[in-house]
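The passage that follows is intended for readers who have already worked through the single-chain material. We present the inputs for a multi-component assembly, then the predicted structure in tokenized form, and finally a short commentary. You are encouraged to pause after the input and sketch how you expect the pieces to fit together before reading on.
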Amino acid sequence: MTVLNRKQAPQFNGVENITLIKPEHIKLANGCDVYSFNSGGQDLLRIEWIFNNLRFNVAKPLLNVATNTMLTDGTTITTAAQIADHIDFYGAFLQVDYSYDHSQVTLYTLTKYLGSTLPVIKDIITNSVFPQKELDTFVRNQQQKLQVSLQKNDFVARRIFNKALNGDTIYGLAAQPEDFQSLTQEDLQAHFKEMYQPANCTMVVAGKVSKEAMALLTDTFETGWENQPAIADIMQPVLEPSSERFFYTEKPGALQSAIRIGTPFINRTHPDFPAMQVLNTVLGGYFGSRLMANIREDKGYTYGIGSGISSFKQSGSFFIASEVGADVSHSAVNEIEKEVNLLKKDLIPHEELSLVRNFMLGSLLGSLENVFSHADKFKNLYFAGLDYDYYDRYTAAVKSATSEELKALANKYWDFDNFYKVVVGKY
Amino acid sequence: MVKFNRFTLDNGLRVIVHEDSTTPMAVLNILYDVGARDEDPEQTGFAHLFEHLMFGGSVNIPNYDGPLQRVGGENNAFTSNDITNYYITLPSANIETAFWLESDRMLSLAFSKKSLEVQRNVVIEEFKQRYLNQPYGDVWLKLRPLVYKQHPYRWATIGKTIKHIEDARIEDVKAFFKKHYNPQNAIMVVGGDVKTEQVKQLAEKWFGPIPAGEKYVRNLPVEAPQHEERREAVTAKVPLNDLYIAFQMEGRLDSSFHAVDLMSDILSRGNSSRLYKRLVKDKQLFSEVHAYITESLDKGMFVMQGKPIEGVAIADAEAALWQELEILKQEEVPVDELTKVKNKTESIKAFSEMSLLDNAMNLAFYELMGDADNLNYETDKYLAVTSADIKEQANKLFRKDNSSTLVYLADKAEEVLETEFSELKN
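Having made your guess, compare it with the prediction:
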């Protein structure tokens, strides 16, 4: 028997093929697109109704988010309590989620209860009324929640950063407690009517999508849900980044400072995006990244630091974020600057780059855990106006990225002096 | 149904294999039977600090993360009051790398002084970030010692104070490793695109030669039953008052567990729950209110928590929570309402089974509790709970002299909101 050599890593294999499941598509007579992913397997379903947000109104900044959040608060025929009772009785989950570009309703249900849970969704996306009493409760509770969030340095830093990059747009929204008071039932109803119509909706279905399930879905949502005479206005105003670059909010007694540094950036639709993801991963996109290795694992300034690229329909941003000991805020910012500039000056060593490439491919493979993840990948493409070629280009870019190419990208896109810098805490 | 095979190596390492060919990935999860409850009262936070040190290089492999990332893998870990759990996910073609890495750090660590020094700082920053520099962040540091007087659950996993973390020495690290990190105190689950025979062979190869070590025999102080009402009030710079009422309950393995768990669901799972409907929506006393249990292996906590609406007196908020508990004590839960929380439990189980990592972690934890197979009978145990069981538990738990109330009061003296917005506008 050979002696075990524990110093020697086992042989390993690269990730060769990544296969994405593509959806079936049908278009309902009322214009609603339906994409479905059938996995077989467990008898359950996740169904999403995704709507484009309406044009941002500076005077009424909370309409998109409030309309979405209050969808479960009552319709012409059902009270909030009845909606909750019904969904919970069948062990289902009804979620409403708001993001910058879209608002959505999600239903998680066992297939056997689909016939009982679907009518609830139909009811809320066709008949919601936003009762005044529920609105009052919503306003008060949201104001309270916001007050708590405003005590969190990372929350405050993120808001200041987004506002600086995106100005008075949906991407820069930084609501104040009093903004909630301007919400009216009338405005919510009008917003709802314009936005939640079938031509502005995409349904994404994932799980055990049987013929019966599809028939039930089609029957429920093809009839009795009509478009309004006016189509939804989903154009967003252009971004107006601030000319000011440095934002410091002092918090007396803070033990840590929240730091957020970055810049408006290309999004997923840009040809450089996949290679930029590689560069971002090297800098701060995984546990072994340069920022983590230096600022956490070498200096111990923080519990965590990372960088990322956000991709939205009309915007994108590159950011570095951390919470660091209040006494080392300056040192941390200096180290961040050093790491960004190193990537502009020196080539990434071959060993490090090949590690990052393998890591990213493994991570992509690992992100396809179940049929829901395949549906999520589809949404990334679909809402960016891309097709499945994107993931071919992405994997090709990851496999072929060279140190020279990444250095050129760092120089093309990163200028630390020109980055927005936000510090909340002590500096 | 989560299927598995299981075997034990000669050195005592328990191994469970969960084959799932629908994924190209594999998971290797190792649970060590050690948590914050096993710490010395003068060295709290040590189990968690130690978890950080497990990534600081092992006897033959100086860098843990690099080789794993190189083969497309990711890893993480967590420490609770009961256990420490480490997991790796990676493309199944590279599963042997996971065996190589995990077996070496079970064999021995590098015990690097630099690693200890840095991770001490990292954990101190974690302490600040999660417990001290957050509104309400220190609630558990205050609530635990109110509920527990003898049992080590009286401190949180992060530790009692930063001082204990600062004081950690390399000798303590070595002793802790020797005591807890050996095959007899571990349960390994390998799941995903793997075969049982392959796992057996790899386990023998990489873990088989590790010495069995000494079996740690747990002998913790038992928390005496509570017979007095406990109460504490603190004032802090937070925007809203916050109210906690905690009750001692039996441990995770007690037969009453499922009834008590469903009772917390009846009170607070989802928008149809009693607390949300009555106290948030109807009576408008709270902006948010929750009931939950800690699922501890030893004596646990049933916690009621809520933030009263501004202007609502703490005493009134407290009375409203007690009124809900009184209803549970006096009236049996209607059949429909009980069916509702049971249906929810069933569907949560179904959705959870879609995650390979969840399945692996659950198998390890159920094996620790006696038998991994019980994972597949858990739903049945919930379905068997009756309204009478719930009423019985309510009467057992919800006594004033079994309650610990923590009132977290907002110090309104300093209004800091204004400065934030003025900065923003500049």
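Commentary: The CA atoms of residues 292 and 303 of chain B lie 5 Å apart. Chain B touches chain A through 92 residues (CB under 8 Å). How closely did your sketch match?
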